[in-house]
Amino acid sequence: MEIYFVRHGEAEWNRQHMLQGHSDIPLNDAGLAGARKAARALKDISFDRAFASPLARARKTAEIIASEHAGLKVEVNMDLIEMCFGKCEGLNLHKEELPEEEERLRQQLRRWFQDPEHADPVPGGESVKEVKARCRHFLETVIAPLEDHCERILVVAHGGILRSMEGVIRQEADQEFWDGPIAPNCGAMVCTMEKGKLQIRQLLDLVAMASVF
């Protein structure tokens, strides 16, 4: 069985380099266009089931992709919601100067990025261990039972979730979480499952793929 993990199209906070997390920011015009390109890149690949995060940017991306596949319904799953960044949501990561409190949060966030296993998570946010537990639960309770019934599954979620799925599949230590790259908007991670074992097969840029069709 194949699983296509796809990151959502661009939302406005992506463009502005702001942390989104659980904040429900919709796709912007570029994100809608990117989702349509992703749909075009995947239109000749058949999916038996489709799952998405409840957040609008992922759900809409999934719906646009599913629209190219007759009868494919998008099923929302709470385990796929982006990792929560608590009080850091809406924080601009690249702005040179921030108000004192926001700068304090940014420095704490940077410490956590550098040492996710030992540094305190941002206030109100999730730890890497908590996010990976959600992803592991989704893989074990939703994906694994489908192996004998489906050939191909679509999962549309978020950058943090795709990175977490990768960490779970590769059995990485929590300390390695931020060492790997975050998938671009409409990037995909294609995995295979055989006898319950998951392997990462390839990484794709669906927007770039659409441009060659």
Short overview:
The chain is α/β, with parallel strands linked by helices and 213 residues long.
Describe the structure.
This protein is an alpha/beta fold. It has one domain: Phosphoglycerate mutase-like (Rossmann fold). Helix content is 36%, strand content 17%. It has 7 helices and 6 strands, in the order βααβαβααβαββα. A 6-stranded mixed beta sheet has the order 3-2-4-1-5-6, sandwiched between helices. Strand 2, helix 3 and strand 3 form a beta-alpha-beta unit. Helix 2 packs parallel to helix 3 and helix 5 crosses helix 6. The longest helix is centred in the middle third of the chain and has 16 residues. The protein starts with a strand and ends with a helix. 41% of the residues are buried. The model has no long low-confidence stretch (mean pLDDT 95).
What letter string, H or E per element, gives the SSE order? EHHEHEHHEHEEH
Could you tell me the mean pLDDT? 95
Main CATH class = Alpha Beta
Per CATH, the architecture is 3-Layer(aba) Sandwich
Low-pLDDT sequence parts: none
Provide the CATH topology. Rossmann fold
Distance between the termini: 25 Å
Overall number of domains:
1
CATH superfamily name? Phosphoglycerate mutase-like
Q: Report the count of strand segments.
A: 6
Helix segment tally: 7
- Strand residue content: 15-25%
* Biggest β-sheet strands, sense, barrel: 6 strands, mixed
Strand order of the largest sheet: 3-2-4-1-5-6
- The radius of gyration computed from the alpha-carbon positions, rounded to a whole number of angstroms, is 17 Å
The class by helix and strand makeup works out as alpha/beta
Share in helix: 25-40%
Assembly form of the protein: single chain
Task: Identify the overall geometry.
Answer: globular
